[in-house]
Amino acid sequence: MTVGVCYFPEHWPRERWETDAAQMAEAGIEYVRMAEFSWAVLEPEPGSYDFEWLDDAVEILADHGLKVVLCTPTATPPKWLVDRHPEILQADPDGTPRRFGSRRHYCFNSPVYRQETRRIVSKLAEHYADVDAVVGWQTDNEFGCHHTVRCYCEDCAAAFSEWLRATYDDIDDLNEKWGTTFWSQRYRSFEAVDPPRPTPAEHHPSHLLDYHRFASDSVVDYNRLHADILRDHDDWFVAHNFMGDFETLDTHAVADDLDLVTWDSYPTGFVQDRRTGTPSMDELRAGDPDQVGMNHDLYRGTNDAPFWVMEQQPGDVNWPPHCPQPGEGAMRLWAHHATGHGADAVLYFRWRRCREGQEQYHAGLRKQDGSADRGYRDATDVAADLSDVDSDHVDAPVALLHDYDDWWAVSAQPHAPEFDYWEHARTYYRALRARGVQVDVVHPETDLSDYAAVVAPSLHLADDERASHLREFVASGGELLLGARSGAKDPYNKLPDELAPGAFADLAGVRVDQHESFPADVDLSVAVDGGRAADGNGDAYAVSVWSEWLDPAPETETLATHTTDLADGTPAVTRNVTGDGSTVYCGVWPGADLADELVSGLLSRAGVETTHRLPDGVRVNERDGLTWVSNFTSDPVSVDAPADATFVVGDETLDGFDAAVVESAPADLELGTDD
Amino acid sequence: MTVGVCYFPEHWPRERWETDAAQMAEAGIEYVRMAEFSWAVLEPEPGSYDFEWLDDAVEILADHGLKVVLCTPTATPPKWLVDRHPEILQADPDGTPRRFGSRRHYCFNSPVYRQETRRIVSKLAEHYADVDAVVGWQTDNEFGCHHTVRCYCEDCAAAFSEWLRATYDDIDDLNEKWGTTFWSQRYRSFEAVDPPRPTPAEHHPSHLLDYHRFASDSVVDYNRLHADILRDHDDWFVAHNFMGDFETLDTHAVADDLDLVTWDSYPTGFVQDRRTGTPSMDELRAGDPDQVGMNHDLYRGTNDAPFWVMEQQPGDVNWPPHCPQPGEGAMRLWAHHATGHGADAVLYFRWRRCREGQEQYHAGLRKQDGSADRGYRDATDVAADLSDVDSDHVDAPVALLHDYDDWWAVSAQPHAPEFDYWEHARTYYRALRARGVQVDVVHPETDLSDYAAVVAPSLHLADDERASHLREFVASGGELLLGARSGAKDPYNKLPDELAPGAFADLAGVRVDQHESFPADVDLSVAVDGGRAADGNGDAYAVSVWSEWLDPAPETETLATHTTDLADGTPAVTRNVTGDGSTVYCGVWPGADLADELVSGLLSRAGVETTHRLPDGVRVNERDGLTWVSNFTSDPVSVDAPADATFVVGDETLDGFDAAVVESAPADLELGTDD
Amino acid sequence: MTVGVCYFPEHWPRERWETDAAQMAEAGIEYVRMAEFSWAVLEPEPGSYDFEWLDDAVEILADHGLKVVLCTPTATPPKWLVDRHPEILQADPDGTPRRFGSRRHYCFNSPVYRQETRRIVSKLAEHYADVDAVVGWQTDNEFGCHHTVRCYCEDCAAAFSEWLRATYDDIDDLNEKWGTTFWSQRYRSFEAVDPPRPTPAEHHPSHLLDYHRFASDSVVDYNRLHADILRDHDDWFVAHNFMGDFETLDTHAVADDLDLVTWDSYPTGFVQDRRTGTPSMDELRAGDPDQVGMNHDLYRGTNDAPFWVMEQQPGDVNWPPHCPQPGEGAMRLWAHHATGHGADAVLYFRWRRCREGQEQYHAGLRKQDGSADRGYRDATDVAADLSDVDSDHVDAPVALLHDYDDWWAVSAQPHAPEFDYWEHARTYYRALRARGVQVDVVHPETDLSDYAAVVAPSLHLADDERASHLREFVASGGELLLGARSGAKDPYNKLPDELAPGAFADLAGVRVDQHESFPADVDLSVAVDGGRAADGNGDAYAVSVWSEWLDPAPETETLATHTTDLADGTPAVTRNVTGDGSTVYCGVWPGADLADELVSGLLSRAGVETTHRLPDGVRVNERDGLTWVSNFTSDPVSVDAPADATFVVGDETLDGFDAAVVESAPADLELGTDD
After folding, report:
1. What residue stretches are annotated with the Glycoside hydrolase family 42 N-terminal domain (chains A, B, C) (predicted)?
2. A95 by DSSP, 3-state: which?
3. Chain B hits for A205, Cβ within 8 Å
4. Which of A608, B459, B543, C650 could form a disulfide with B486 if both were Cys (CB 3.0 to 4.6 A apart)?
5. Share of chain B above pLDDT 90, in %
6. C144: distance to nearest CA of chain B, Å?
7. Which among C181, C202, C565 has CB closest to A281?
8. Each residue of B531-576: pLDDT tens digit?
9. Beta strands of A370-468 (E only): which ranges?
């Protein structure tokens, strides 16, 4: 329960560092991250190292009681390295190199760059192994940012062939698993399989999926290279800072080599550039708590352990389309919200607005002239708030299953421009969170025995093993909700012999007779239980974009039927009891009301206690006996808590963009808003 | 009057083929198309052929009384061929190769690929020359799909220079015909003329037009190479499957080397991706009958002979933006509609949903698990319907003139983003069809003596020869409607000396004083006969996008005048009598009501009988004494036929997406709808 | 006060030239520009020149009393030159060459092309040095058109390194000035700095700014090469024809080597393709007088001398999205409007619609058949009008400061897609012009002592020298309005140590506490003087896109405060008195009403007389005692002038698209419209 900051002493005169350290300490900051992007300063000439400035910085911070997290500086190879080895550059699909002049211009599969990485990481690890103040490391920075997970250079072409050789028995096995008879796409050797470069028509989906797996695995390998060297030198922690709503990198796989999972949270940017729908003014001011929260729960779930926010938005930022000022107190709110979701530390990025280079329009806790900015005041407040709070594990009753392979497969063949895998999953996540429930976003192979309910928005690629895992969960009393497009494909991105939901068909007691997709502005609807529910769409529940016509087995109950046009009267949502539990199959992309209806039923059957339905922008989180109330709106919220409940932070009245922490369960609170 | 199916036995276990054949026969299917895209299976190793599987498939089908159409497999050269000869790949204008990994990745002008094509086609022709069940061939597949008519590789650069050498007397002749003094674009040799690769500003329009002619001619040559070899071996028919609303390939020229013209019809896809305007729900379910019908009439007109639909949409498909399920019965409706337009066979694509590769989201008549899909039931129904129907030639009283050169010239200089040559032509086509009239879409050089009326929406490139042809038609009593931008250019895409309509000016008795273009949402209007007609736009007829100010000769009648703004009072539509006929010149892009007004007058003067004005989505077709009524809407349609008229298919009441065939002329029917 | 025409005799038979010259003389034309784009005709074979045709054309024109302006033909190197030296081609950032086939396909830094330029320009200058009729030269044509100022070829890469070497003391100086510690972007030599080619993330803003300076300087050098050769041969004038609203080339710097600044004015094109907002029908017919006028005032201001319109739109043109016919009389109106703004000659482009090449859809004064087009009649009218008018210098009381470096810096980091530097400046320009005030658009280093008021919409890059210049202006009684984002950066595109407005902070008496940006459709507002002004936005003045929260010094007056949301109550506009003048700082992008309010206050304090607020589309210009009234609307305008005021052109009633010239000051006129 603490805060920190990202610091670039190399951008400022050495005589300022003492002041900076003192101001950090005064604010209550505990952790300081440094040396990200610093290769050209650490090794200004090839083979000639200068660590002295960093030594001094570490020492000054340590003198003020601050703990240091260092970064391997590999996200920015210096120009001299690129000039010596231009083959380390990434390439676009058409072969255009991604050149020096920004960051992340290296290929994960470059043998030369891996060698250079070993060299600089070893030097640093060796140098700081005995420095007590250095408590951990961040590997590189935001692997894959700027669309760099996927590279198409010659080194990747060779590595991909090797990856395929390691994955398949032989080339006939690949031809069989992918299905290459279609369009004469058979290969006679692994060497013959190229990266998916420009072609007249779309690529083979199995080829694409494997290339995306390979590209993600390349990052996993590259991260492991860092982690192994660092662990060889000390027992500091090894972390990486992942990104929000990020598709191309399998966080679960990278995290296997990490001690600590962290991510970089920029709420007012994300709500503009990676979410469907025009942001409201409140969202421009503070973001969407479910969008941010789903990332918290993903990264917490990755290692089933507390996580950090390694970079927390400190004020206005440079990269979204528009850059409004965050709401009054928003920087404090975000830290509370993260902590409620299980963060043990929240580090603001950055200490001080930088005068040079690409991020001059990115605020820091201090302004460029050194004076305190809005974020500094918020950070100081939340550091004080959290100093009173000691909280352990988040205990979530519900798991939301997510597999990056499914994301990649759906993205390669969305079958409607609007079908975004993650946005679809967020629909269910949002409904759960609107009922005050904690959610673990976890890989489908996770042990599910401790969960009362499981929501699987789209378990797209399926085989018997995955089906067995869910079958056991339901058999022993678990309540499962399986969403649209589940089981539609086999693990190689082919259609299975049987109709969707394929391997899950017996469990769900249903077959998908037909699927169809529509523009988002076409109104579709379903009726629940044969009746017609009140809803913005008239007398039925609104659904959109995706519609399946279900063919339930005789014993399977129909929960909702289509009420639109051609599909009128056809089952849309079903429920099948197996063992001590049951499986709901939802063949549509539900609107918010239908999602609430389905999720409420699921939670009720699973015996999970919920709040009343919370309005958008107001959320609660339970962590180890404490409940965080987060108000992402500009309107006040009142909290009616049990008489004996103590407010650890705040009180019964939250201002706009305010937070409170109370010793009570969410379901025991009554939240009042103007809505 | 029959149906067929496209079949890929190589995608399924050999033990299934017998079942497939039996089910085809049971459905009433007569033709089976095979071996498209099968090169890698027919020649798995370079020089090592395996035709056995195909022999077996042909035999099994023949045993069930089915006739086979084979395809030359050249649309998909195998990877081993590409690896041996990477120079066969096409290139984008900027030189980026279009690589292996989908289809159509070869250049039509590659000498190596032409040699390889001769080899594989000869082998196949030789092998199947004695097999009775093989009744015909399809050359390659959808020439030019995925923007592949136009390639910019080095082989094309060399071939283009040779094409120019064959087209022009010498380089001075080219300089003169193109007009290369402008911007110092003179050439000193044919070798110096490059393909139109990236340039700072737009390309020379004469250069573009000739490159587009050359590219189309390259396909014509390449197709002839197939046809000649096939004809050397047997007297089976040679066909090709063209595409819908397809700009870049001159169908007329390719067809000269074909016995049978076919095309691939996907109504719910086309209405989304190659038509202006947001599709209605009915159109998402069944498409736009005029969009589909115009293609039918184009391909029927190409060889003045019955055509086939070689691929008919079988259900939902994978490639449009959205993929709704077709309306109930739509797959049957489309086959009827095609037959009414003159199709002798309609083959559904494909037999069974494919489990692998790029088209997994494309339905078949059977589902991936082998069970019957919606299309199978519709196909079975229509096969039964058509077994009772025997109908010969379509006899159209009206010709709509279309020349690909005009399309290419207008596309190179649309002068308004909204000016789409084909959409503009469709405005007139739609008006004719709404009056129940059969239309031949034919090349302007077609013998016109049998037509009562001719509509030429935009005969853009003109010379005296073309003008004479029309002059003779009108002189002998023909009624002509000449649309905007006609005669604006000479055949080399230069302005002629005289003002538009250039070579047609005497015939039309009019000169274009000015032309102008506007955004589609700017309301323009004209008044007919000096009066003001009731219309959605108030008291005048709506027109849009394109407006010419006409200067009629003294004897020329003004049919409509502009009523908008600066052009107010200026003639917009004129009529000039020459010989026994007359010529209407329409200098605007008419709205539907004005198009109806103009077309009705034309038909009336030409003595063509019409129906009352049919609502959108309901169309009639007369073929050899029978009238097809096609209902592309979800609402019922009643057919009031003469008492003695027999319904060969259906009866007086059509459901949504239903069809009927009645022994009566269209003009004798009264169709009732809710509209 | 005269008109001219651009003429391409080489496009027409020699026997026509005599007629052309006679018709020009008859129209009252004085100047004829020729030989643009004629290299391939002047040197049809390498080293073999043919100037005879041009000699003849000059002679024929001279015989009719016409004066000739010739052009260096370098905008279109012939194909034979490109084939011999393909390295002269420009390259896109990704290396794709910009090839032959249009125009402007050469690199300004190509040593080979500079040599070829010297050769052809010397030949021409030598040849025409003794020809009296040739009074001046245009260098090349529209430098930078089609995005060609910025090239990324190898010649540019080398030249950029040399440019940097000449600009900075040494590479350490560059590293310090740019700030390359950020993201390890340090360089060890000038050679190591590449052009900004494709990178994973955005480029370093200092790198971008210097590349854009270098690219502009390359054109300056290339133009000087022409000018020096031409001046070596005769004392004819040397001019260049610049473009409208053109960002990438520093006109001020090019103009230092010119005797005469000219530009090419296409009002109905510009209003469509380089202005925010959908054009009204009147604007489609005649353009936006403030958009056109701001260019007039820029190019007049460049050399503080009369300018020419070297190309004036003659009718409909080919390149905008849509091509309506100009309003009746618009071609005359534009010439009057230009003359009122200080033009001494207006040359229509082109004499006759060209039958060949890329501009066939571009009208001329004569149609392609040689007959008079609408523009010929208007040109004849205005030539007659202006023959009575003799007017000297425009004397503007207000300067609007503009620096291309600021434009480039803001474009590289707009911080909101809607923040267009030029559009923002136009907001202030428009407000000044709506009050009938003449404006000089000048470089910030211009001597300001003769101006009563100065508006600096966004002096983004600032240092002490620039601040001193303004400080002196205000100290001696000048009234200054400093707009948003002023002083935010130092001249190297880094943040200065202090907060914005940086070097201007003392003068403005204010600090920018925060800045923020919003989508254009988010309603923002401010209240003036603590009150609430009537406005379309309710009770406050509308502002948009950009908002700064100001922190005024104690003695600084707050003129307006934010009334929106989070910023409510915070100062938005301030005023600070220093010496005998004062400085208004406006921290928002004002709507038209706020801009009028601020500008009116400024003019009032500065003692500048104004008109009542003129409606959009109606403007007045004072030039040497005469006032031009220009009506860019289709509605009539009445002019109530003092009794003794003589109308030199027109009278008290202007029709739509009409102009009048009256001997009276603007402030003494009362203009009546329907508004």
Report:
1. 6-387
2. coil
3. 357-358, 360
4. B459
5. 95
6. 10
7. C565
8. 444 444 445 899 999 999 999 999 999 999 999 889 999 999 999 9
9. 398-401, 439-442, 453-456
DSSP E strand boundaries for A563-615: 571-578, 581-586, 588-590
Q: What angle do CA C381, C387, C392 make, to 5 degrees?
A: 125
Structure tokens of B90?
A: 């096409």
pLDDT band at A533 (very low <50, low <70, confident <90, very high): very low
Angle at the Cα of C116 from the Cα atoms of C113 and C117, rounded to 5 degrees: 85
Chain B nearest-CA residue for A511 = B369
Model pLDDT for residues C394-415, shown as the tens digit of each residue: 999 999 999 999 999 999 999 9
B279, B272 contact by CB (below 8 A):
yes
Distance of CA A278 to the CA centre of its chain: 21
Query: In angstroms, rounded to a whole number, what is the distance separating the alpha carbons of residues C287 and B357?
Result: 54
- Contact between residue A409 and residue A460 where contact means Cβ atoms under 8 Å apart: yes
Active site residue C142: yes
Tokens of A225: 């290279």
**Least confident among A376-385, A528-537, C80-89, C666-675:** A528-537
DSSP per-residue string spanning B589-615: EE-HHHHHHHHHHHHHHHT----S-PP
- Contact between B31 and B7 (Cβ < 8 Å): no
Contact B44 A197 (CB under 8 A): no
Measured CA to CA, the distance from residue C25 to residue C32 in angstroms comes to 10
List beta partners, residue A480.
A454, A583
How does B137-166 read in b/e, with b if 16+ C-beta sit within 10 Å? bbbbbbbbbbebbbbbbebbbebbbebbbe
Contact A242, A134 (CB under 8 A): no
Domains (range + CATH), chain C? 2-89+103-123+132-147+237-386 (3.20.20.80), 398-606 (3.40.50.880), 618-673 (2.60.40.1180)
Residue A389: helix, strand or coil by DSSP?
coil
A284 in contact with C, Cβ within 8 Å: yes
Tell me the one-letter amino acid at B350.
Answer: R
Closest CA to C171 of C182, C157, C161, C183: C161
Displacement of CA C287 from its chain's centroid (Å): 15
Among B residues 57-76, those touching chain A with beta carbons less than 8 Å apart: 73, 76
What DSSP assignment string belongs to C51-94? -HHHHHHHHHHHHTT-EEEEE--TTS--HHHHHH-GGGBEE-TT
From the list A459, A513, A461, the residue with the least C-alpha distance to A481 is: A459
| CB environment B56-85: b (16+ within 10 A), e (fewer) | ebbebbbebebbbbbbbbbbbbbbbbbbeb
Which of residues 382 through 421 in chain C touch A, CB cutoff 8 A?
A: 413, 415-417
* Ordered DSSP codes for C415-459: SSTT--HHHHHHHHHHHHHTTT--EEEE-TTS--TT-SEEEETT-
Q: How many whole angstroms separate alpha carbon A97 and alpha carbon A90?
A: 6
Question: Distance (Å, rounded) from C-alpha A429 to C-alpha C612?
Answer: 60
Instruction: Please state the separation of Cα B110 from the chain's center in Å.
Output: 27
Global ipTM: 0.96
Question: Where do the H-state alpha helices sit in C279-392?
Answer: 281-286, 289-303, 330-340, 374-387
Residues whose CB falls within 8 Å of the CB of residue C584, separated by 6 or more in sequence, listed in order? C479, C480, C481, C482, C559, C573, C574, C575, C598, C601, C602
- Residues 6+ away with beta carbon under 8 Å from C222: C108, C114, C117, C140, C143
Residue C207: pLDDT above 70? yes
Model-level pTM greater than 0.90?
yes
Helix (H/G/I), strand (E/B), else coil: C22:
helix
Q: In a 3-state reduction of DSSP, which class is residue C373?
A: coil
Those residues whose C-beta lies under 8 Å from the C-beta of residue B45, and which sit 6 or more positions away, are A188, B80
Residues 6+ apart with CB under 8 A from C168: C174, C177, C190
